[in-house]
Amino acid sequence: MESHSSSSFSSFKSYLHALSDTPNRLSRRACSASTSSEETARPLSGADLRRSLRWHDLIGFGVGGMVGAGVFVTSGRAARLRAGPAVVLSYALAGLCALLSAFCYTEFAVEMPVAGGAFSYIRATFGEFLAFVTGANLVIDYVLSNAAVARGFTAYLATALGHPGLRLTAHSLPEGYNEMDPIAVAIVLLLTFIICYSTRESSWLNMVLTVLHILFIVFVIVVGFWRGDLRNFTEPGNPENVGGFFPFGASGVFNGAAMVYLSYIGYDAVSTMAEEVKNPVKNIPVGVSGSVILVTVLYCLMAASMSALLPYDKIDPEAPFSGAFEAGAAGWRWAGNMIGAGASMGIVTSLLVAMLGQARYMCVIGRSCVVPKWFAQVHPTTSTPVNASAFLGIFTAAIALFTDLNILLNLVSIGSLFVFYMVANAVIYRRYAPHGTSNPWPTLSFLFCFSLTSLIFTLLWQFAPPGKPKAYMLGSCIALAFGVVLLFHLMVPQARMPKFWGVPFMPWIPSISIFLNIFLLGSLDKPSYVRFGFFSGLVVLVYVLYSVHSSFDAEREGILSRKAVEMSVENGDEDQKV
Protein backbone atom coordinates (compact mmCIF):
# COMPACT_ATOMS: atom_id res chain seq x y z
CA MET A 1 0.00 0.00 0.00
CA GLU A 2 1.30 3.42 -0.92
CA SER A 3 2.03 5.61 2.09
CA HIS A 4 0.99 9.20 2.55
CA SER A 5 4.63 10.29 2.23
CA SER A 6 4.37 9.52 -1.49
CA SER A 7 1.03 11.29 -1.79
CA SER A 8 0.13 14.30 -3.89
CA PHE A 9 1.57 16.61 -1.22
CA SER A 10 4.84 14.82 -0.41
CA SER A 11 6.85 17.19 -2.61
CA PHE A 12 6.38 20.09 -4.98
CA LYS A 13 7.02 17.78 -7.92
CA SER A 14 4.35 15.36 -6.67
CA TYR A 15 1.89 18.20 -6.30
CA LEU A 16 2.54 19.44 -9.85
CA HIS A 17 1.98 15.90 -11.10
CA ALA A 18 -1.28 15.77 -9.13
CA LEU A 19 -2.44 19.07 -10.66
CA SER A 20 -1.74 17.75 -14.15
CA ASP A 21 -3.99 14.79 -13.33
CA THR A 22 -6.79 16.99 -11.98
CA PRO A 23 -9.37 16.24 -14.74
CA ASN A 24 -9.04 12.50 -14.17
CA ARG A 25 -9.30 12.90 -10.39
CA LEU A 26 -12.31 15.18 -10.69
CA SER A 27 -14.10 12.64 -12.87
CA ARG A 28 -13.36 9.93 -10.31
CA ARG A 29 -14.08 11.78 -7.05
CA ALA A 30 -16.39 14.77 -7.67
CA CYS A 31 -19.55 12.73 -8.21
CA SER A 32 -18.55 9.77 -6.03
CA ALA A 33 -21.45 9.23 -3.65
CA SER A 34 -20.84 7.48 -0.35
CA THR A 35 -23.03 4.75 1.11
CA SER A 36 -24.80 4.81 4.45
CA SER A 37 -22.17 2.40 5.78
CA GLU A 38 -19.36 4.71 4.69
CA GLU A 39 -21.01 7.69 6.36
CA THR A 40 -21.49 5.83 9.65
CA ALA A 41 -17.90 4.57 9.59
CA ARG A 42 -15.33 6.48 11.64
CA PRO A 43 -11.89 5.10 10.70
CA LEU A 44 -10.11 8.46 11.01
CA SER A 45 -11.64 9.74 14.24
CA GLY A 46 -9.97 7.32 16.62
CA ALA A 47 -12.37 7.36 19.57
CA ASP A 48 -16.12 7.47 19.02
CA LEU A 49 -18.40 10.31 19.98
CA ARG A 50 -20.17 9.20 23.16
CA ARG A 51 -23.89 8.41 22.84
CA SER A 52 -25.33 10.29 25.80
CA LEU A 53 -28.23 12.37 24.42
CA ARG A 54 -31.96 11.66 24.50
CA TRP A 55 -35.01 13.32 22.94
CA HIS A 56 -35.29 15.99 25.63
CA ASP A 57 -31.64 16.95 25.07
CA LEU A 58 -32.36 17.38 21.35
CA ILE A 59 -35.43 19.50 22.05
CA GLY A 60 -33.29 21.63 24.37
CA PHE A 61 -30.61 22.05 21.72
CA GLY A 62 -33.22 22.82 19.06
CA VAL A 63 -35.02 25.42 21.14
CA GLY A 64 -31.73 26.89 22.35
CA GLY A 65 -30.39 27.09 18.81
CA MET A 66 -33.48 28.75 17.36
CA VAL A 67 -34.68 31.09 20.11
CA GLY A 68 -31.79 33.53 20.09
CA ALA A 69 -31.86 37.30 19.96
CA GLY A 70 -33.16 37.38 16.38
CA VAL A 71 -36.83 37.19 17.40
CA PHE A 72 -36.44 40.44 19.36
CA VAL A 73 -35.58 42.22 16.11
CA THR A 74 -37.27 40.40 13.22
CA SER A 75 -40.73 40.43 14.83
CA GLY A 76 -40.78 44.23 14.97
CA ARG A 77 -39.60 44.68 11.40
CA ALA A 78 -42.05 42.13 10.06
CA ALA A 79 -45.01 43.64 11.95
CA ARG A 80 -44.21 47.28 11.13
CA LEU A 81 -43.05 46.90 7.53
CA ARG A 82 -44.52 43.71 6.10
CA ALA A 83 -47.50 42.06 7.81
CA GLY A 84 -49.00 44.19 10.60
CA PRO A 85 -50.87 42.19 13.28
CA ALA A 86 -50.95 39.26 10.83
CA VAL A 87 -47.29 38.71 11.73
CA VAL A 88 -48.73 35.97 13.97
CA LEU A 89 -49.69 34.08 10.81
CA SER A 90 -46.29 34.88 9.31
CA TYR A 91 -44.63 33.06 12.20
CA ALA A 92 -47.03 30.13 11.82
CA LEU A 93 -46.30 29.89 8.09
CA ALA A 94 -42.53 30.15 8.65
CA GLY A 95 -42.82 27.47 11.34
CA LEU A 96 -44.58 25.19 8.85
CA CYS A 97 -41.72 25.75 6.37
CA ALA A 98 -39.19 24.88 9.07
CA LEU A 99 -41.13 21.75 10.04
CA LEU A 100 -41.20 20.49 6.44
CA SER A 101 -37.43 20.96 6.18
CA ALA A 102 -37.04 19.28 9.57
CA PHE A 103 -38.89 16.21 8.24
CA CYS A 104 -36.34 15.93 5.42
CA TYR A 105 -33.46 16.21 7.87
CA THR A 106 -35.04 13.63 10.17
CA GLU A 107 -35.29 10.93 7.49
CA PHE A 108 -31.58 11.21 6.80
CA ALA A 109 -30.57 11.57 10.46
CA VAL A 110 -32.43 8.38 11.45
CA GLU A 111 -30.93 6.36 8.60
CA MET A 112 -27.44 7.86 8.96
CA PRO A 113 -26.99 8.95 12.60
CA VAL A 114 -23.72 10.75 11.98
CA ALA A 115 -22.26 14.09 13.04
CA GLY A 116 -21.99 15.39 9.48
CA GLY A 117 -25.58 16.52 9.09
CA ALA A 118 -26.34 17.95 5.66
CA PHE A 119 -22.76 17.34 4.44
CA SER A 120 -23.18 13.57 4.91
CA TYR A 121 -26.69 13.54 3.44
CA ILE A 122 -25.67 15.38 0.27
CA ARG A 123 -22.44 13.37 -0.06
CA ALA A 124 -24.42 10.13 0.10
CA THR A 125 -26.84 11.41 -2.55
CA PHE A 126 -25.14 13.79 -4.98
CA GLY A 127 -21.46 13.12 -4.39
CA GLU A 128 -18.38 14.66 -2.86
CA PHE A 129 -18.16 17.94 -4.77
CA LEU A 130 -21.66 19.29 -4.05
CA ALA A 131 -21.35 18.08 -0.45
CA PHE A 132 -18.08 19.97 0.00
CA VAL A 133 -19.45 23.18 -1.56
CA THR A 134 -22.56 23.17 0.62
CA GLY A 135 -20.81 21.96 3.78
CA ALA A 136 -17.94 24.44 3.51
CA ASN A 137 -20.33 27.33 2.87
CA LEU A 138 -22.33 26.30 5.90
CA VAL A 139 -19.22 26.22 8.13
CA ILE A 140 -18.17 29.66 6.83
CA ASP A 141 -21.65 31.04 7.56
CA TYR A 142 -21.55 29.52 11.04
CA VAL A 143 -18.17 31.08 11.84
CA LEU A 144 -19.09 34.54 10.56
CA SER A 145 -22.53 34.58 12.15
CA ASN A 146 -21.18 33.22 15.45
CA ALA A 147 -18.68 36.07 15.54
CA ALA A 148 -21.51 38.54 14.91
CA VAL A 149 -23.70 36.88 17.54
CA ALA A 150 -20.86 37.02 20.08
CA ARG A 151 -20.49 40.76 19.47
CA GLY A 152 -24.26 41.05 19.79
CA PHE A 153 -23.98 39.47 23.23
CA THR A 154 -21.87 42.42 24.32
CA ALA A 155 -24.46 44.88 22.98
CA TYR A 156 -27.36 43.21 24.77
CA LEU A 157 -25.31 42.80 27.95
CA ALA A 158 -24.64 46.53 27.86
CA THR A 159 -28.40 47.12 27.55
CA ALA A 160 -29.08 44.84 30.51
CA LEU A 161 -26.47 46.60 32.66
CA GLY A 162 -27.32 50.10 31.44
CA HIS A 163 -23.65 50.61 30.52
CA PRO A 164 -23.13 51.34 26.80
CA GLY A 165 -19.32 51.39 26.64
CA LEU A 166 -18.22 47.75 26.96
CA ARG A 167 -16.02 47.76 23.84
CA LEU A 168 -12.53 49.23 23.49
CA THR A 169 -11.69 51.62 20.66
CA ALA A 170 -8.29 51.26 18.97
CA HIS A 171 -7.84 54.49 17.02
CA SER A 172 -4.82 53.15 15.12
CA LEU A 173 -6.93 50.49 13.38
CA PRO A 174 -9.10 51.18 10.30
CA GLU A 175 -12.81 51.89 10.61
CA GLY A 176 -14.84 48.72 11.03
CA TYR A 177 -11.95 46.93 12.73
CA ASN A 178 -11.23 49.33 15.58
CA GLU A 179 -14.02 48.37 18.03
CA MET A 180 -12.29 45.62 20.01
CA ASP A 181 -14.64 43.32 21.89
CA PRO A 182 -12.87 41.29 24.61
CA ILE A 183 -16.21 40.18 26.09
CA ALA A 184 -17.17 38.51 22.79
CA VAL A 185 -13.80 36.75 22.74
CA ALA A 186 -14.27 35.58 26.34
CA ILE A 187 -17.73 34.12 25.74
CA VAL A 188 -16.58 32.31 22.57
CA LEU A 189 -13.51 30.82 24.27
CA LEU A 190 -15.52 29.82 27.35
CA LEU A 191 -18.10 28.01 25.22
CA THR A 192 -15.30 26.42 23.18
CA PHE A 193 -13.81 24.98 26.38
CA ILE A 194 -17.22 23.65 27.45
CA ILE A 195 -17.99 21.91 24.15
CA CYS A 196 -14.47 20.44 24.09
CA TYR A 197 -14.89 19.12 27.63
CA SER A 198 -18.18 17.25 27.24
CA THR A 199 -21.27 17.19 25.07
CA ARG A 200 -23.33 16.02 28.04
CA GLU A 201 -22.26 18.99 30.17
CA SER A 202 -22.89 21.27 27.17
CA SER A 203 -26.42 19.87 27.08
CA TRP A 204 -26.95 20.61 30.77
CA LEU A 205 -25.73 24.18 30.37
CA ASN A 206 -27.93 24.65 27.32
CA MET A 207 -30.92 23.17 29.14
CA VAL A 208 -30.52 25.49 32.15
CA LEU A 209 -30.09 28.63 30.02
CA THR A 210 -32.90 27.60 27.67
CA VAL A 211 -35.33 27.07 30.57
CA LEU A 212 -34.44 30.50 31.96
CA HIS A 213 -34.88 32.04 28.52
CA ILE A 214 -38.26 30.36 28.03
CA LEU A 215 -39.40 31.61 31.45
CA PHE A 216 -38.43 35.10 30.35
CA ILE A 217 -40.36 34.66 27.09
CA VAL A 218 -43.40 33.43 29.01
CA PHE A 219 -43.14 36.57 31.16
CA VAL A 220 -43.13 38.72 28.00
CA ILE A 221 -46.16 36.84 26.63
CA VAL A 222 -48.18 37.06 29.85
CA VAL A 223 -47.49 40.77 30.34
CA GLY A 224 -48.35 41.45 26.70
CA PHE A 225 -51.80 39.88 26.99
CA TRP A 226 -52.34 41.30 30.49
CA ARG A 227 -51.49 44.91 29.64
CA GLY A 228 -52.49 44.79 25.99
CA ASP A 229 -55.65 45.77 24.15
CA LEU A 230 -57.32 43.50 21.59
CA ARG A 231 -58.34 46.57 19.57
CA ASN A 232 -54.68 46.97 18.59
CA PHE A 233 -55.08 43.88 16.37
CA THR A 234 -57.40 45.80 14.04
CA GLU A 235 -57.03 49.54 14.74
CA PRO A 236 -53.86 51.47 13.72
CA GLY A 237 -52.40 54.15 15.95
CA ASN A 238 -52.70 56.70 13.16
CA PRO A 239 -56.23 56.71 11.65
CA GLU A 240 -54.74 57.69 8.27
CA ASN A 241 -52.94 54.33 8.03
CA VAL A 242 -54.62 51.17 6.76
CA GLY A 243 -56.41 49.23 9.50
CA GLY A 244 -57.62 45.67 9.92
CA PHE A 245 -55.80 42.45 10.75
CA PHE A 246 -54.24 42.38 7.25
CA PRO A 247 -53.14 45.99 6.63
CA PHE A 248 -50.62 44.84 3.99
CA GLY A 249 -52.95 42.29 2.43
CA ALA A 250 -52.52 38.53 2.21
CA SER A 251 -49.18 39.00 0.44
CA GLY A 252 -47.90 40.74 3.55
CA VAL A 253 -48.22 37.46 5.48
CA PHE A 254 -45.88 35.75 3.00
CA ASN A 255 -43.45 38.66 2.94
CA GLY A 256 -43.44 38.65 6.73
CA ALA A 257 -42.82 34.89 6.77
CA ALA A 258 -39.78 35.36 4.55
CA MET A 259 -38.40 37.91 7.02
CA VAL A 260 -39.07 35.98 10.24
CA TYR A 261 -38.04 32.55 8.87
CA LEU A 262 -34.44 33.31 9.78
CA SER A 263 -35.51 33.17 13.43
CA TYR A 264 -36.07 29.42 12.96
CA ILE A 265 -32.62 28.63 11.63
CA GLY A 266 -30.74 26.52 14.15
CA TYR A 267 -32.69 23.25 14.17
CA ASP A 268 -30.33 21.93 11.46
CA ALA A 269 -27.51 21.94 14.02
CA VAL A 270 -29.49 19.35 16.00
CA SER A 271 -28.99 16.84 13.18
CA THR A 272 -25.23 17.03 13.75
CA MET A 273 -25.83 15.58 17.24
CA ALA A 274 -27.24 12.35 15.74
CA GLU A 275 -24.02 10.41 16.34
CA GLU A 276 -24.30 11.16 20.06
CA VAL A 277 -27.96 10.18 20.45
CA LYS A 278 -29.13 7.02 22.21
CA ASN A 279 -31.68 5.11 20.14
CA PRO A 280 -31.66 7.53 17.14
CA VAL A 281 -34.74 5.93 15.54
CA LYS A 282 -36.91 6.97 18.50
CA ASN A 283 -35.25 10.12 19.80
CA ILE A 284 -34.30 12.06 16.64
CA PRO A 285 -37.83 12.46 15.15
CA VAL A 286 -39.21 13.58 18.52
CA GLY A 287 -36.28 15.90 19.23
CA VAL A 288 -36.09 17.66 15.86
CA SER A 289 -39.81 18.00 15.11
CA GLY A 290 -40.70 18.71 18.74
CA SER A 291 -38.27 21.61 18.98
CA VAL A 292 -39.63 23.23 15.80
CA ILE A 293 -43.25 22.89 16.97
CA LEU A 294 -42.48 24.27 20.45
CA VAL A 295 -40.59 27.25 19.02
CA THR A 296 -43.41 27.97 16.55
CA VAL A 297 -45.92 28.17 19.42
CA LEU A 298 -43.63 30.48 21.42
CA TYR A 299 -43.00 32.76 18.45
CA CYS A 300 -46.70 33.05 17.59
CA LEU A 301 -47.57 33.91 21.18
CA MET A 302 -44.74 36.48 21.36
CA ALA A 303 -45.92 38.12 18.15
CA ALA A 304 -49.51 38.20 19.43
CA SER A 305 -48.48 39.78 22.76
CA MET A 306 -46.45 42.44 20.93
CA SER A 307 -49.41 43.23 18.67
CA ALA A 308 -51.71 43.45 21.70
CA LEU A 309 -49.48 46.00 23.41
CA LEU A 310 -49.21 48.44 20.49
CA PRO A 311 -50.84 49.13 17.12
CA TYR A 312 -48.64 47.86 14.31
CA ASP A 313 -47.76 51.38 13.08
CA LYS A 314 -46.43 52.33 16.53
CA ILE A 315 -44.09 49.35 16.90
CA ASP A 316 -40.37 50.18 16.93
CA PRO A 317 -38.86 47.93 14.21
CA GLU A 318 -35.45 47.91 15.91
CA ALA A 319 -36.55 47.35 19.53
CA PRO A 320 -40.14 46.11 19.36
CA PHE A 321 -40.56 44.52 22.77
CA SER A 322 -38.76 47.08 24.91
CA GLY A 323 -40.58 49.86 23.01
CA ALA A 324 -43.91 48.08 23.43
CA PHE A 325 -43.33 47.67 27.16
CA GLU A 326 -42.43 51.32 27.62
CA ALA A 327 -45.30 52.69 25.54
CA GLY A 328 -47.98 50.05 26.01
CA ALA A 329 -47.36 48.65 29.49
CA ALA A 330 -47.82 51.79 31.56
CA GLY A 331 -44.31 53.03 30.88
CA TRP A 332 -42.27 50.08 32.16
CA ARG A 333 -38.92 51.61 31.23
CA TRP A 334 -37.02 48.95 33.14
CA ALA A 335 -38.27 46.55 30.48
CA GLY A 336 -35.35 47.53 28.24
CA ASN A 337 -32.96 46.09 30.79
CA MET A 338 -35.09 42.93 31.04
CA ILE A 339 -35.12 42.53 27.27
CA GLY A 340 -31.33 42.89 27.24
CA ALA A 341 -30.94 40.21 29.91
CA GLY A 342 -33.32 37.82 28.17
CA ALA A 343 -31.72 38.33 24.77
CA SER A 344 -28.28 37.75 26.31
CA MET A 345 -29.36 34.32 27.55
CA GLY A 346 -30.83 33.55 24.14
CA ILE A 347 -27.59 34.54 22.45
CA VAL A 348 -25.54 32.23 24.68
CA THR A 349 -27.75 29.21 23.92
CA SER A 350 -27.88 29.87 20.17
CA LEU A 351 -24.12 30.40 20.13
CA LEU A 352 -23.52 27.19 22.07
CA VAL A 353 -25.65 25.09 19.72
CA ALA A 354 -24.15 26.69 16.60
CA MET A 355 -20.59 26.08 17.85
CA LEU A 356 -21.44 22.45 18.61
CA GLY A 357 -22.86 22.10 15.11
CA GLN A 358 -19.99 23.74 13.24
CA ALA A 359 -17.41 21.53 14.98
CA ARG A 360 -19.25 18.35 14.06
CA TYR A 361 -19.63 19.44 10.46
CA MET A 362 -15.88 20.04 10.34
CA CYS A 363 -15.13 16.71 12.01
CA VAL A 364 -17.06 14.70 9.41
CA ILE A 365 -15.69 16.78 6.52
CA GLY A 366 -12.28 15.76 7.88
CA ARG A 367 -13.31 12.08 7.84
CA SER A 368 -14.02 12.37 4.13
CA CYS A 369 -10.43 13.62 3.63
CA VAL A 370 -11.41 16.75 1.70
CA VAL A 371 -9.83 18.80 4.50
CA PRO A 372 -6.86 17.70 6.65
CA LYS A 373 -7.64 14.52 8.59
CA TRP A 374 -6.50 16.30 11.78
CA PHE A 375 -9.99 17.80 12.02
CA ALA A 376 -11.56 14.34 12.22
CA GLN A 377 -9.87 13.39 15.50
CA VAL A 378 -12.10 12.67 18.50
CA HIS A 379 -10.45 12.94 21.91
CA PRO A 380 -10.36 9.51 23.64
CA THR A 381 -11.17 10.95 27.09
CA THR A 382 -13.83 13.57 26.37
CA SER A 383 -15.27 11.82 23.27
CA THR A 384 -15.64 15.22 21.57
CA PRO A 385 -14.12 16.57 18.30
CA VAL A 386 -11.55 18.66 20.17
CA ASN A 387 -9.43 19.66 17.17
CA ALA A 388 -12.33 20.95 15.09
CA SER A 389 -13.94 22.63 18.12
CA ALA A 390 -10.74 24.39 19.22
CA PHE A 391 -9.72 25.51 15.73
CA LEU A 392 -13.11 26.98 14.82
CA GLY A 393 -13.54 28.46 18.30
CA ILE A 394 -10.22 30.32 18.14
CA PHE A 395 -10.95 31.42 14.56
CA THR A 396 -14.39 32.72 15.59
CA ALA A 397 -12.93 34.55 18.60
CA ALA A 398 -10.27 36.23 16.44
CA ILE A 399 -12.91 37.55 14.04
CA ALA A 400 -15.19 38.64 16.88
CA LEU A 401 -12.38 40.60 18.55
CA PHE A 402 -11.66 43.05 15.72
CA THR A 403 -14.30 42.86 13.03
CA ASP A 404 -17.60 44.70 13.03
CA LEU A 405 -19.16 42.31 10.55
CA ASN A 406 -22.33 44.41 10.18
CA ILE A 407 -24.19 41.14 9.77
CA LEU A 408 -27.63 40.40 11.20
CA LEU A 409 -27.63 38.26 14.31
CA ASN A 410 -29.30 35.45 12.40
CA LEU A 411 -26.94 35.39 9.42
CA VAL A 412 -26.78 31.71 8.84
CA SER A 413 -29.31 32.82 6.17
CA ILE A 414 -28.32 32.14 2.58
CA GLY A 415 -26.00 29.22 3.29
CA SER A 416 -28.59 27.48 5.45
CA LEU A 417 -31.46 28.08 3.03
CA PHE A 418 -29.33 26.69 0.19
CA VAL A 419 -28.51 23.60 2.27
CA PHE A 420 -32.19 23.14 3.21
CA TYR A 421 -33.00 23.28 -0.50
CA MET A 422 -30.33 20.69 -1.28
CA VAL A 423 -31.46 18.32 1.50
CA ALA A 424 -35.07 18.44 0.26
CA ASN A 425 -33.85 17.57 -3.25
CA ALA A 426 -31.68 14.81 -1.81
CA VAL A 427 -34.62 13.17 0.01
CA ILE A 428 -36.58 12.90 -3.23
CA TYR A 429 -33.60 11.70 -5.26
CA ARG A 430 -32.66 9.07 -2.69
CA ARG A 431 -36.24 7.70 -2.58
CA TYR A 432 -36.82 7.58 -6.33
CA ALA A 433 -33.37 7.09 -7.83
CA PRO A 434 -30.92 5.51 -5.35
CA HIS A 435 -27.54 4.81 -6.89
CA GLY A 436 -27.35 1.77 -9.13
CA THR A 437 -31.00 0.75 -8.83
CA SER A 438 -32.94 2.86 -11.35
CA ASN A 439 -32.64 5.43 -14.11
CA PRO A 440 -31.95 8.79 -12.41
CA TRP A 441 -32.99 11.04 -15.31
CA PRO A 442 -36.77 11.14 -14.64
CA THR A 443 -36.09 12.22 -11.06
CA LEU A 444 -33.42 14.75 -12.06
CA SER A 445 -35.73 16.15 -14.76
CA PHE A 446 -38.51 16.55 -12.20
CA LEU A 447 -36.23 18.31 -9.70
CA PHE A 448 -34.98 20.68 -12.42
CA CYS A 449 -38.46 21.51 -13.78
CA PHE A 450 -39.96 22.01 -10.34
CA SER A 451 -37.07 24.19 -9.17
CA LEU A 452 -37.29 26.26 -12.36
CA THR A 453 -41.05 26.76 -11.90
CA SER A 454 -40.46 27.79 -8.27
CA LEU A 455 -37.76 30.22 -9.36
CA ILE A 456 -40.03 31.83 -11.98
CA PHE A 457 -42.77 32.21 -9.34
CA THR A 458 -40.29 33.85 -6.96
CA LEU A 459 -39.00 36.29 -9.59
CA LEU A 460 -42.56 37.25 -10.56
CA TRP A 461 -43.46 37.76 -6.89
CA GLN A 462 -40.46 39.99 -6.31
CA PHE A 463 -40.30 42.05 -9.50
CA ALA A 464 -43.57 41.96 -11.45
CA PRO A 465 -45.78 45.07 -10.99
CA PRO A 466 -48.96 44.45 -8.99
CA GLY A 467 -52.17 43.85 -10.85
CA LYS A 468 -54.27 41.16 -12.49
CA PRO A 469 -51.54 40.03 -14.95
CA LYS A 470 -49.22 39.31 -12.02
CA ALA A 471 -51.96 37.35 -10.23
CA TYR A 472 -52.65 35.29 -13.37
CA MET A 473 -48.97 34.50 -13.90
CA LEU A 474 -48.48 33.54 -10.25
CA GLY A 475 -51.56 31.33 -10.40
CA SER A 476 -50.28 29.70 -13.59
CA CYS A 477 -46.94 28.94 -11.92
CA ILE A 478 -48.68 27.33 -8.95
CA ALA A 479 -50.87 25.23 -11.25
CA LEU A 480 -47.83 24.19 -13.31
CA ALA A 481 -45.85 23.27 -10.19
CA PHE A 482 -48.78 21.21 -8.87
CA GLY A 483 -49.08 19.45 -12.22
CA VAL A 484 -45.36 18.65 -12.35
CA VAL A 485 -45.45 17.07 -8.89
CA LEU A 486 -48.65 15.14 -9.63
CA LEU A 487 -47.27 13.81 -12.93
CA PHE A 488 -44.04 12.72 -11.25
CA HIS A 489 -45.98 11.07 -8.42
CA LEU A 490 -48.14 9.09 -10.87
CA MET A 491 -45.45 8.18 -13.40
CA VAL A 492 -42.33 7.43 -11.31
CA PRO A 493 -42.55 4.77 -8.57
CA GLN A 494 -40.46 4.94 -5.42
CA ALA A 495 -37.42 2.70 -5.81
CA ARG A 496 -36.53 2.66 -2.14
CA MET A 497 -38.40 2.88 1.15
CA PRO A 498 -36.75 4.04 4.39
CA LYS A 499 -36.06 1.31 6.95
CA PHE A 500 -37.01 3.23 10.08
CA TRP A 501 -38.63 6.65 9.58
CA GLY A 502 -39.52 8.44 6.38
CA VAL A 503 -41.01 11.74 5.24
CA PRO A 504 -44.76 11.18 4.80
CA PHE A 505 -46.74 12.07 1.66
CA MET A 506 -43.85 11.74 -0.78
CA PRO A 507 -43.01 13.65 -2.91
CA TRP A 508 -45.37 16.44 -1.80
CA ILE A 509 -43.76 17.51 1.49
CA PRO A 510 -40.16 17.82 0.22
CA SER A 511 -41.48 19.49 -2.96
CA ILE A 512 -43.24 22.13 -0.86
CA SER A 513 -40.00 22.54 1.09
CA ILE A 514 -38.08 23.08 -2.17
CA PHE A 515 -40.62 25.68 -3.29
CA LEU A 516 -40.58 27.56 0.01
CA ASN A 517 -36.79 27.59 0.29
CA ILE A 518 -36.45 29.02 -3.21
CA PHE A 519 -39.13 31.59 -2.36
CA LEU A 520 -37.29 32.60 0.82
CA LEU A 521 -33.96 32.75 -1.01
CA GLY A 522 -35.59 35.27 -3.34
CA SER A 523 -36.24 37.60 -0.40
CA LEU A 524 -32.55 38.01 0.48
CA ASP A 525 -30.58 41.09 -0.52
CA LYS A 526 -27.89 41.41 -3.18
CA PRO A 527 -24.91 41.55 -0.75
CA SER A 528 -25.90 38.11 0.57
CA TYR A 529 -25.65 36.64 -2.93
CA VAL A 530 -22.37 38.43 -3.63
CA ARG A 531 -20.87 37.02 -0.44
CA PHE A 532 -22.28 33.55 -1.17
CA GLY A 533 -20.87 33.65 -4.70
CA PHE A 534 -17.46 34.79 -3.45
CA PHE A 535 -17.19 32.08 -0.81
CA SER A 536 -18.54 29.42 -3.19
CA GLY A 537 -15.90 30.36 -5.74
CA LEU A 538 -13.24 30.17 -3.04
CA VAL A 539 -14.53 26.75 -1.92
CA VAL A 540 -14.46 25.43 -5.52
CA LEU A 541 -10.87 26.65 -5.84
CA VAL A 542 -9.89 24.86 -2.62
CA TYR A 543 -11.57 21.69 -3.86
CA VAL A 544 -9.70 21.75 -7.18
CA LEU A 545 -6.33 22.66 -5.67
CA TYR A 546 -6.45 20.50 -2.53
CA SER A 547 -9.55 18.50 -1.63
CA VAL A 548 -9.93 16.32 -4.72
CA HIS A 549 -6.27 15.31 -4.49
CA SER A 550 -6.49 14.57 -0.78
CA SER A 551 -9.57 12.37 -1.17
CA PHE A 552 -8.01 10.69 -4.23
CA ASP A 553 -4.94 9.85 -2.14
CA ALA A 554 -7.14 8.56 0.69
CA GLU A 555 -9.00 6.27 -1.71
CA ARG A 556 -5.71 5.03 -3.18
CA GLU A 557 -4.25 4.39 0.27
CA GLY A 558 -7.31 2.41 1.37
CA ILE A 559 -8.58 4.93 3.95
CA LEU A 560 -11.88 5.27 2.08
CA SER A 561 -11.91 1.66 0.90
CA ARG A 562 -14.75 -0.74 1.58
CA LYS A 563 -12.54 -2.88 3.82
CA ALA A 564 -11.64 0.02 6.08
CA VAL A 565 -15.27 1.02 6.24
CA GLU A 566 -16.45 -2.49 7.11
CA MET A 567 -13.88 -2.77 9.91
CA SER A 568 -14.94 0.59 11.33
CA VAL A 569 -18.63 -0.28 11.14
CA GLU A 570 -18.05 -3.60 12.91
CA ASN A 571 -16.17 -1.80 15.69
CA GLY A 572 -19.01 0.70 16.09
CA ASP A 573 -21.95 -1.71 15.84
CA GLU A 574 -22.40 -2.01 19.58
CA ASP A 575 -22.61 1.77 19.92
CA GLN A 576 -25.24 1.97 17.20
CA LYS A 577 -27.44 -0.51 19.05
CA VAL A 578 -27.40 1.43 22.32
Automatic annotation (TrEMBL):
The keyword Transmembrane applies. Its main location: membrane. It is a multi-pass membrane protein. The chain crosses the membrane at residues 58-76, 88-108, 120-140, 180-197, 204-226, 246-267, 288-312, 332-357, 378-401, 407-429, 441-464, 470-488, 500-522, 528-546. GO terms for molecular function: amino acid transmembrane transporter activity. It is found in: Membrane. Residues 501-551 form the Cationic amino acid transporter C-terminal domain. InterPro entries: AA/rel_permease1 (IPR002293), CAT_C (IPR029485). Keywords: Membrane, Transmembrane, Transmembrane helix. Coiled coil: none annotated. One of its GO terms (cellular component) is plasma membrane. The keyword Transmembrane helix applies. Belongs to the amino acid-polyamine-organocation (APC) superfamily. Cationic amino acid transporter (CAT) (TC 2.A.3.3) family. This is Cationic amino acid transporter C-terminal domain-containing protein. The lineage of its organism: Eukaryota, Viridiplantae, Streptophyta, Embryophyta, Tracheophyta.
